[in-house]
Amino acid sequence: MENPALKLGEFSTLTLILKTNNKTDVILPIVYYKGYRAFLNKKEVKIEELDGKISIKNISSGTLIIEYRIQWFEYFSAFISISFLILILIKQLLKYKRRD
Q1: Does the pLDDT at position 3 exceed 50?
Q2: Per-residue pLDDT at 14
Q3: What does the longest C-alpha to C-alpha distance in the chain come to?
Q4: With contact defined as beta carbons under 8 Å apart, do 26 and 55 qualify?
Q5: 18 and 65 belong to one structural domain
Q6: Is residue 18 within 8 Å of residue 61, measured between CB atoms?
Q7: Best CA proximity match to 61, nearest among 19, 14, 16, 25
């Protein structure tokens, strides 16, 4: 089985087939983050946040593709977290060595 983790610059996509007689609003049970884009029949549509979820207003039938690309600040925050973890481990190792 493939690892579903995204690599730098890759997209995660979700494809939905919508069938409706009228234009409608769609609220997806997906937590909204910057980096989501939506396409209806290969034309980009606007995504909004509604109560922390993805909301797309006034769309008609067709193929809706939701894609997500990891943003730079997610990499930056992971770098900071790992850096502090390493610093704490080094500090603890030095503290342990001084006891001896």
Answers
A1: no
A2: 79
A3: 77
A4: yes
A5: yes
A6: yes
A7: 19
Q: Extract the tokens encoding 37.
A: 């884009």
Which domain does 46 fall in, by range?
12-69
SS3 of 65, please? strand
Rounded-to-integer distance, Cα 58 and Cα 45, Å: 10
Q: Tell me, yes or no, whether 91 and 56 share the same domain.
A: no
Q: What are phi and psi for residue 85, nearest 5 degrees?
A: -60, -45
Number of alpha carbons in the 13 Å side-chain half-sphere of residue 6: 13
Question: 38-88: per-residue pLDDT in tens?
Answer: 999 989 999 999 999 989 998 888 888 888 877 777 778 888 999 999 999
- pTM of the predicted model as reported, rounded to 2 decimal places: 0.60
